[in-house]
C-alpha cells in the first residue's frame, strides 16, 4: 500500500511540475516542447499599403494596422491637426484610402489574427497609444524601461518599435528575435 501512495505522490508532483512549467512559459510565443516550437510570433498581414507607408512613414514607423482597434484609428485620423503635438493633416484622398486600409486590418477586424489579443483588458474602446494597451504592457513588463529604453540613446522611446524589433516595419513582433541595442540578451 505504501508503494502505491508513493507512486501517486510522485505522479502528482510530476503533473504539478509540468503545469508550473507550462504556466511560466505561457507568454512564450513559440510554445513549449513537445507541443511545438514553430515560429508563431506576431506577424501582421497586409503591412504594405503605399499611401499609409508614405504618409505616416514620413515621420515615424508606419505601425501595422493590427496594433489598434478601429475606433482608435478613427480617433487618430479625426485629429491629425494635433497628432501627438504635431500637425499631420493630409488631403482627403489619402485619408480615405488610409482609413479604409486601417479599418480593414485593425485589431478588431477579421484580418487581425493573433493581434486581437491586444484588445484584452482594454479600458477604452478607442485607445490611440499602442504603448498603453494592457497587452502591450504585459509583453514588455520584463524590460527595465529607464535603463533599456528611455535612457538608451539607440532607442529613446517604447514607440520606436523598430529599434528592438528589427522586422517591425514588416509587421513581425516575435519576442525571440528582439535585440535591445547596447544590451546583451542575458540582460532581458
3D structure, described in words:
The chain has 188 residues and is mostly helical. The chain folds into two domains: 43-127, no CATH class; 140-188, no CATH class. The chain has seven helices and two strands; from the N terminus they run αβααααααβ. The protein has helices at residues 2-24, 50-57, 70-77, 92-105, 134-139, 145-150, 161-164, and strands at 42-43, 172-173. It has a two-stranded antiparallel sheet with strand order 1-2. Mean pLDDT is 85; it is low at 28-40. It holds the Pfam family DHC. Keywords: Signal.
Top keywords for this entry?
188 residues; mainly alpha; 2 domains; 2 strands; 2% strand; Dihaem_cytochrome-c; Multihaem_cyt_sf; Cytochrome C; signal
- What can be said about the biggest beta sheet? 2 strands, antiparallel
Low-pLDDT parts are 28-40
The tally of beta strands, per DSSP, is: 2
Fraction of helical residues: 25-40%
- Radius of gyration, rounded? 21 Å
The chain-level structural class is: mainly alpha
Task: Provide the β-strand percentage band.
Answer: under 5%
Please tally the helical runs, counting DSSP H or I stretches of 4 or more residues.
7
Cα(first) to Cα(last) distance is 49 Å
The neighbouring-strand order within the major sheet is 1-2
Mean pLDDT: 85
Shape: elongated
Element-level helix/strand string: HEHHHHHHE
Number of domains: 2
Outline the secondary-structure elements.
Blueprint: H1 2-24, E1 42-43, H2 50-57, H3 70-77, H4 92-105, H5 134-139, H6 145-150, H7 161-164, E2 172-173
Antiparallel strand pairs: 1-2
Helix pairs in contact: 3-4
